Amino acid sequence: MKSLKVGVIGLGTMGKVIASHIRGGGHLTAAYDRDPARYQIFNECACADIASLGSKCELAVLVLPDPSSVRSTMEELLSGNNRLKAVLDHSTVDPETAATVSQLCNERSLWHLQSPMFGGVRAAKERRLFLLGGGDGNVMERFGEAIRTYAPEIMPVADAWTAAAAKLVHNLVTLGNAAVAMEALVLGGRLGLSADSLLTLFARGTADSYVARNSLRRTLVDGDYSAGYQLYLARKDLHLAGELAHSAGISFQVLRSVMGHFDAAASADRLGTDYPTIYPDVADALSRRTEESSR
Fold first, then answer.
1. Residue 267 φ/ψ, nearest 5 degrees
2. Rounded to whole angstroms, how far apart are CA atoms 19 and 28?
3. d(C-alpha 211, C-alpha 198), whole Å
4. Handedness of CA 94, 130, 258, 66 (dihedral sign)
5. Which residues pair with 117 in a beta bridge?
6. Phi, psi of 56 (to 5 degrees)
7. What DSSP letter does each residue of 256-273 carry, written as one string?
8. Of 153, 87, 86, the residue nearest 118 (C-alpha)
9. Which tens digit of pLDDT belongs to each residue from 181-226?
10. In terms of Cα–Cα distance, which of 111, 100, 48, 103 is closest to 70?
């Protein structure tokens, strides 16, 4: 089997899993993260800088936390001589950033595919991520064998802008759903109903959701906040969704309420934990609202 010479930039929770699957498929040539402790575990594939990764790979896979990281990485990646043919960006960013990166790649005759991921850490570990693909279909045609080591299915959309926008709309629903469910659990607690029993009830009825069955149960019932959708990323995505809504001339009352919960919980010691860490803050906010309305 011929190696497709793939490099991964960004080795956080998701990037590390993706890089491991690509390596298992025999296609990982390079791996880089700004934290040396993250890339050193990839031994012979470890790269000390972005330029060296670009010189070894034909496909650069980006799994980065925010738009500024994507923009700065692309500036470094494209500034030197490299053997790149394509960029596959799994980062959750604003549509303008996605479109800008797509244009930069086009100007340098590189294929670009904006490809948000769906399914979370568990799906990544189980090699069943679902992807959107906005941009150049040549990326999948040329490098599909490597990409399918962690994501068996990709849905094409019009372009990079559309793919990035769709991801933000999706995450708004996810986090809005979570906030409503947590408020309901606070109510249930006041009524003597345990989170365990309520989440079981939700899963058996029309209140069922991935959030209730997985994220909230794993954290609020099992006490595991170590993995998943980290609070700082959730806040970033909510603010990007808010900016997108504003640009579209839409004002969401629900979005403002949900952002309030997440912003109130943004203490530095919790930003790296799974987002249901905001549950006590949701409870406090509901109590304050009740007190204020009774005055």
1. -75, 145
2. 7
3. 13
4. negative
5. 131
6. -105, -15
7. HHHHHHHHHT--TTTTTS
8. 153
9. 999 999 999 999 999 999 999 999 999 999 999 999 999 999 999 8
10. 100
